[in-house]
Amino acid sequence: MIKLPKVLCDRCQAGRAARMLEDIIPTVTRTLGCDHAAMKMTESNLAHAFVILQSYSEAEMLLSDFVRTLPANQASWVHAICGCIHVQTILEHFEVAERMCERLLESVEKGKTLAHDDPKTLATAQILLRIYSKQERWSDIARLKRRVPAMSEQPAGQSPSFRDLYGARKDQDETRMKSSPMW
Questions:
Q1: Which InterPro entries does the entry link to (predicted)?
Q2: What is the pLDDT of residues 168-177, one digit of tens each?
């Protein structure tokens, strides 16, 4: 059952996947509990469907809960924080996105989650670069480039984005991001 909603999302049927997942959450909660791994996977799939459907506020609630409750050394936490950064950016919650980017980069620096040249690390650095550039925070940009040296090695326009990494379809949220004064 956990894989079917993923397939539906990949087949442009995110609405159907979201309805299916919302329908099973009460049963999963009652039988397994709120903290069970299967429940967390169900909610993660629902958040993914919400992103595709551009229901960003709903996705934000689920993803923020994951970031708060999961240990920072788990792959699920990395996936959740990347999704949360993506959603926060679209919602133009740049202060929150910046804090989450910093939190992820701190985890990378401690060697707990990702490599310094991992695409998710680079996408995080690119988000911070955009935030810092817009606010003309040149010293923060210099510090960021020292923290993530692989960022400087990326050809212009070739850096990964959370839109690609989190699995949101480009055509669905590109217009909204471009209309934002930040991008």
A1: TPR-like_helical_dom_sf
A2: 544 444 444 4
Domain boundaries, the chain: 1-53, 69-183
For the cut 70, the answer to whether the pLDDT of residue 52 exceeds it is yes
Q: Enter the pTM of the model.
A: 0.77
Start-to-end CA distance of the chain, whole Å, equals: 38
Angle between the N-to-C axes of helices 14-32 and 37-52, in degrees from 0 to 180, rounded to the nearest 10: 160
Q: How far apart are CA 83 and CA 49, in angstroms?
A: 12
What values do phi and psi take at 121, rounded to 5? -65, -45
d(CA 32, CA 58): 23
DSSP tag of 20: H
In this structure, how many other beta carbons lie within 10 angstroms of the beta carbon of residue 146?
Answer: 10
* CA-CA-CA-CA dihedral for 62, 100, 52, 161, to nearest 10: -160
Cβ neighbours of residue 80 closer than 8 Å, sequence gap 6 or more? 44, 47, 63, 66, 67, 70
DSSP letter at 35? T
